Amino acid sequence: MPFINSQTNKADNIPIIPLQKKKTIFNTFKRDYQLWLLILPAIVCVIIFNYIPMYGIQLAFREYDFTAGLTGGEWVGLKYFEQFINSHMFIDLLKNTVVLSLTTILIGFPAPIILALLINQIRWKRGKKILQTTVYLPHFISIVVLVGLLNVLLSPNTGILGLLVNKLGFEDLNLLASTKSFVPVYVLSDVWQHVGWNSIIYLAALSSVDPQLYDAAKIDGANRWQIIRNVEIPAIIPTIIILLILNMGHIISTGFEKIFLMQNSLNLPVSEVIETYVYKIGIISNQFSYAAAIGLFNTLINFTLLLLMNYIAKRTSKISLW
Amino acid sequence: MGFLKTKNKSELIFDIIIYTVCALVFLVIAYPLYFVIIASVSDSTLVSTGKVLLFPKGFSLFGYQEIFQDSRIWIGYRNTMIYALGGTFVNLLFTLPAAYALSRQEFRARRPLMFFFVFTMFFNGGLIPTYLLMKDLSMIDTMWVFIFNPVTVNVFNLIITRTFFESTIPNEMYEAAIMDGCNHFKFFTKIVLPLSKAVISVIGLYYLVWHWNDFFTGLIYIRDYSLQPLQIVLRDILISNQVFAEGAGSTGSGYAQRYADQVKYGVIIVSTLPILVVYPFLQKYFEKGVMIGSVKG
After folding, report:
1. Within 13 Å, how many C-alpha atoms sit on residue B206's CB side?
2. Residue A29: other Cβ atoms inside 10 A
3. Closest Cα in chain A to B268
4. Most buried pick, A283, A295, B9, B79, via CB within 10 A?
5. Which A-chain residues 50-109 have CB contacts (< 8 A) with chain B?
6. What is the ipTM of this complex?
7. What are phi and psi of A75, to 5 degrees?
8. CA distance B199 to A183
């Protein structure tokens, strides 16, 4: 820990300020007080808006009492968790949430890797630039505009894609209001919006590959496909693993806003996920304790998956988040 | 890389495949965006029968006329403008000094504080406790909730900025400044900030875009219509199909229906325009920003 470890001092190279003095917490505070003042506003803000809600999680175990506030109320233990697990919604919510997140990862995670490898192969500089500018662009469109775009483009009567689908013979298929098409439309539009932006990080990793590796591979007679397989892909594996761990942590918290906006009464059987349900139970129906318990259930699964993935990655490839 | 010299048949085939796939990716991503532009200035009957494909047909600005007559759009625009500028200012005011402190190697509390921030990326209180906190703070139905919320200090942006300071501000510079009697406050404002325009633009843009696109805050915390941000107004028009209350759209339902789509295409463009205007100027920083941040995730 940096508070007591004297070895870090030498590397620190701090001028003038004498380090021979006893390093009590008070002394280091005195020396660092300006840095503390600079970071203080951020600390206060994070405590209020991020840590107090964590403290408020105990609401999930209490009966919400309007007068007692966030952490008052009578202790009811696991009552609301039991209520959720025994409710008729439980299996459907869990299934929808997992299906949506897994499909998003399965399709959405490899897509930017492939795109980055592809962009990296383009040797026509101007073309490369135009392609990159274009594929980054959709990332900056808001969720509301994206769903609005889907609505007008996929409309079976007036949308250009809807018309196309009808011409291809799926006449009765309304892409916006069918239990069959909800997941594909959700996932593919997600790929469309973020594939370019997410490829940046892999492009950055690719650009730092040692040119000598390319030369060596070429001397060994490797063709371009072999260079991709044996030089470029191994070079981005660490990046891939880190991002995969991070993504797994979100496996069960799929994009609330987009799903919420894409929901309608016809696709509800497959589009109701835990997060949209929490919103409806908590914010709309004011059942705060029940909704907090469902939300905590969600967070805990997220967190466990993150830890698990991190552990597996650490054991198998020695790459981990911490 | 010298690939060009050794061009044989298999290389050529490889190139053809690469360029074909790239061209397809380009078309799939660019065409919907292009289509919205041409559809917004075309006759809506021609658009809805699939006749407008490459160029606008039956040029008409009716959609835009409707939009500019609608007061909701303007209220939303004004609100979002205030929230985005005020919010981004506060974001930077909190993030930059914190990132500087975390970038100083000699700062004793550096590692525990880093953990303190990073932990919030992986664990949070969830919607309901956050909502009740805002309620207890009487921030519901005020503009403050757009500015002070769990995203005020975005940890990802904090890490990007910290890494940038670490890798671009040499320690020798700090030593020299200290010799001249500079303290941390002066060093930060007089030397670090002027040297960090690149990273300030990048995270400033991230924050600005976040505020501009923020739909969640308006949905959860705002009931008062005069405080609604643009994204909520857009939701009403684009997704909930609320016909324009003012203007010609309300005169008859058949008429309104016919032009509703043209209005939608126009709204998409009008609401995304500010971002599209800033985009080319800041694009060169994107890769730099992501790259800097990825060095030490």
Report:
1. 25
2. 13
3. A145
4. A295
5. 50-57, 59, 69-70
6. 0.87
7. -75, 125
8. 37
DSSP helix, strand, coil percent of chain A (3-state; round to 5): 70, 0, 30
What is the rounded distance in angstroms from the CA atom of residue B294 to the CA atom of residue B297?
5
Q: Which of A35, A134, A249 comes nearest B101 by C-beta?
A: A35
B65 touches A170 (CB < 8 A): no
Query: CA-CA distance, A227 to A241, in Å (whole number)?
Result: 21
Query: Can you give the pLDDT of all 297 residues of chain B as single tens digits?
Result: 444 455 678 888 888 999 999 999 999 999 999 999 998 888 887 877 777 788 888 888 888 888 888 888 899 999 999 999 999 999 999 999 999 999 998 888 899 999 999 899 888 888 999 999 999 999 999 999 999 999 999 998 998 899 889 888 888 888 898 888 889 999 999 999 999 888 898 889 889 989 999 999 999 999 998 999 999 999 988 888 765 544 444 444 455 666 788 888 898 998 888 888 877 777 777 766 666 655 443
Q: How far apart are CA B254 and CA B236, in angstroms?
A: 19
Interface probe with B: pick from A16, A27, A125, A152, most Cβ of B within 10 Å: A152
Which residues 6+ apart lie within 8 Å of A260 measured at CB? Answer: A276, A279, B219
Look up residue A197 and give its amino acid. Answer: W
Using a CB-CB cut-off of 8 Å, the residues of chain B touching A160 are 35, 39, 47, 50, 53
Report the distance separating Cα B106 and Cα B166, nearest Å. Answer: 12
Q: Cα(B205)–Cα(B286) distance, rounded to whole angstroms?
A: 9
Residues 6+ apart with CB under 8 A from A257: A143, B215, B216, B219
Cβ-defined contact of B127 to A41 (cutoff 8 Å): no
- Partners of A157 on chain B (C-beta within 8 Å) are 48
Spell out which residues of chain A touch residue B231, defining contact as CB-CB under 8 Å.
142, 144
Contact: B11, A223; criterion CB under 8 Å: yes
Q: What share of chain B is helix, strand, coil (3-state, %, to 5)?
A: 75, 0, 25
Question: Taking the model in full, what pTM does it have?
Answer: 0.86
